[in-house]
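Dear V.,

Thank you for sending over the compound details. I've combined the ligand you provided, zinc ion, with the protein sequence from our construct and run the structure prediction for the complex. I'm sharing the raw inputs here so there's no ambiguity about protonation or stereochemistry in the SMILES, which I know was a concern on your side last time.
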Amino acid sequence: MGYEGRKGWKKLLQLNIQGVTKIFVWKTLNNCLPTKGNLFKRRVVDNPLCPICEKEFETSCHAIWSCPTAVDVWAEEGSLVKKWASSEVDIEIIWKNMVERLIAEEMRLIAIVMRCIWLRRNKFVFEKGFTSPKDILIQARHNVIDFQLPQTSKLESIKRQRRDMVRWKAPDKEIVKLNWDAAYDKTSQ
Ligand SMILES: [Zn+2]
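Below is the predicted structure of the protein with zinc ion bound, written out as structure tokens.
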């Protein structure tokens, strides 16, 4: 991994996303996904072509970025990289460009969309079903919210615990503090 790659990797580590998504993006950037191209190199399969478009070697970059079935998601209305060239062949460079131009909050969504695209491909390969590009973006946004909610409530409970830990402290010198209580006996008045 070059210097730029390391910068992109550092950014990935800082993103507020699930570990599984981080690992997935790391594998993508290092072309370690079990793509047909990689399985072919390891002689697991005898055809390296993308199982969906059947036109190019299935590399991580092809699967996540340049395959027509990835392009349709990135080009969908509401995508953060709508006008970006899809012909790029190095996913590490694409990631670096994104890191430079997008804010952390946007990068979170990008990372989740990347994983959704991969899961969608698998779904196509194994179940022959395909999620629409629009639904992929909706799924990714929900994922961001779902991940945020438990974190927010965790923070709340930490704050509550802190409040509970406030203990009684003796008042400063020359200050008298009186605590008093009263009761009324109804029978004897
Ligand atoms: Zn393809």
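A first observation: Residues 3-154 form one domain.

Warm regards,
I. M.
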